[in-house]
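Bug #77: duplicate submission created two jobs. Keeping one. Sequence:
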Amino acid sequence: MTASTTVPSSAAPSLRLDELDQQILEMLRVNARLPVVKMALALGVTRSTVQARITAMEQGGVITGYTVGVSHPRQGPRIRAMVMVSVTSRSEPDVVRALSKRFEIVKLWATSGRYDLCALVVTDHTEELDALIDRIRGVKGVVDTFSTILLSTKLDRPD
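Kept job's structure:
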């Protein structure tokens, strides 16, 4: 498992991460299931100190969740694509809400430029991708889409 450490814009700005916090985050990135006792021993602090720091980072929005890293995709190859989405003025929150309900959309970013949103989508077949793009185009507030299929991963660094 890995820890996600993106600090959202709504995170408490008063939460300052010191060197110990950074070390804890790095350990969680490598293994989010690492027992707090082992982390404390490695860092030379008490278990309660590590636990308090983790709790503070969770409550402060620094640690946004814990995920599982899977070494092999589900059965067989999957189709991954980036779908750029242009929306009408002021409809972005409604479009984001609608797109968030689609299980095929695994990440969604706000972007600048011609397109307002960028979605990473995963389907089993190109036919499913085509149908998903049609459904995205059918969402109220969507003006245009542009998609491209991802062929291979050349570099994959953790965030």
